[in-house]
Amino acid sequence: MASSPQVESGTAGGCLLNGCITLSVLFLVIFTSAWIWVSSRPERDEAEARADLRATVEAHQRRLSRAAADGGPRDAEIARLFPAAKPADGLIDVRRHAESTTVVAELLGRGPSRTFVFVHETTVKGCYAFHLPSSDGGAPRVSVRQLLDKTCTARPPARTPTP
Fold first, then answer.
1. What is the pTM assigned to this prediction?
2. Could you give the CA distance from residue 129 to residue 96 in angstroms, rounded to a whole number?
């Protein structure tokens, strides 16, 4: 009976076959890992843009608190604090009720820019209301709440008042 030819370990054919399979599996693992990393990049970029938006909102809250510390901020001062940043409109509306003021603004968060084939930057917009209660001698505490995006898009941006 004829036995089938087998490749023994240690011969040139065994090393070639084992090395080829090892390299194929290694290539498949590297390719799959790279594919997962590249396909999850937009979610990571959006998360960074949302973190930047939160930081922007907090910075505007601090600036508005400082502006309101020496009395109610004037319209020109509010407009200077909330400039338009394409594609966000910036200042949308300023409402005054007795001594309190509510500022509605559309703010922008930027993610990292990518330059692979095309220049690409992830941006996130958000509509926020900043409420300054009447100050009773102390520094006013500005409260912030997020509004629906259609609140900012339903109204045209406020005109910048002349000082």
1. 0.69
2. 13
